[in-house]
Amino acid sequence: MDILLFGIQGSGKGTQGKLLAEKYGLTVFEMGGELRKMIQSGTSLGNQIKTIVESGQLVSAEVIMEVVESFLSHHPVDRPILFDGIPRTFDQARSLETLLRRHGRSYHGILIHISQDEAIQRLTKRRICSACKAVYPADYPKDVCETCGAALVTRADDNTASIQKRLENYNKETIPLVEHYRSQGLLTEINGAQPIPAVTQELFHKTESLFFF
Q1: Of 22, 26, 36, 74, which shows the fewest CB atoms inside 10 Å?
Q2: Domain tally for the chain?
Q3: Is residue 88 annotated as part of the catalytic site, yes or no?
Q4: Does 122 fall in a domain?
Q5: Is 166 among the residues known to form the active site?
Q6: Whole-model pTM?
Q7: Catalytic pick among 23, 50, 166, 182
């Protein structure tokens, strides 16, 4: 069972997705990371993406799906995938679902839910590692990254105006998609406003049946 992971920025979906992947042996597909891998691959598709990115343009939906298709073609059918950051729109969802069915894969959505007020509070107070880009919540007590030791900084776009714009885009593009999966009975919802261990516990409890049936 492949997982389509949803959550507003600040919901902790990256952290929870990683824990879920570790528990059930999922391969994480994160679009930004896959695009970087493609660029480094030196393939014709990778060179095409490199040209697009270097020119300052956005990677088209068609190219994104080519990246997904390439990934699926080289991935074992019996190993589940966690998709983080895709789909974000209805068009992406339709294309992704078509590809998954073509490769004989089933899927289910998971939503890590927090309110917009909570998201703004978290995002304006979080910090990131200046080197490895790991994200740390407001209550992290140190000023250096526990992984690489580099200094923690506040992202330039983690200000109220920028955050509200990102939340508006999420409401416009992704919330209707979440409703789409909810209406089909293909969505598991997790309360992301709880302390991290409690969120993880609820996530594991509610998703166990997806992997053991």
Answers
A1: 74
A2: 1
A3: yes
A4: no
A5: yes
A6: 0.84
A7: 166
9 within some domain:
yes
What ranges make up the beta strands (E) of the chain?
A: 2-7, 27-30, 81-84, 107-113, 127-129, 135-136, 152-153, 187-191
Please provide residue 41's backbone torsions phi and psi, each rounded to the nearest 5 degrees.
-70, -25
Residue 175 located in a structural domain: yes
Note every long-range contact of 53-61, with CB atoms under 8 Å and residues 24 or more positions apart, other chains counting.
59/35, 61/91, 61/92, 61/95
Domain that holds residue 85: 2-26+80-114+168-211
Structure tokens at 166: 């990102």
CATH number of domain containing 7: 3.40.50.300
13 included as an active-site residue: yes
79 annotated active-site: no
Sheet holding 187-191, edge to edge: 27-30, 81-84, 2-7, 107-113, 187-191
Options 36, 88, 105, 125, the catalytic residue: 88
Neighbours of 117 (CB within 10 A): 8
Query: Of 37, 50, 105, 155, which one is the catalytic site residue?
Result: 155
At residue 58, what is the residue type?
Answer: L
**pLDDT tens by residue, 19-55:** 999 999 999 998 878 888 888 888 888 898 888 888 8
Please write the tens of the pLDDT for every residue from 130-145: 998 888 887 888 999 9
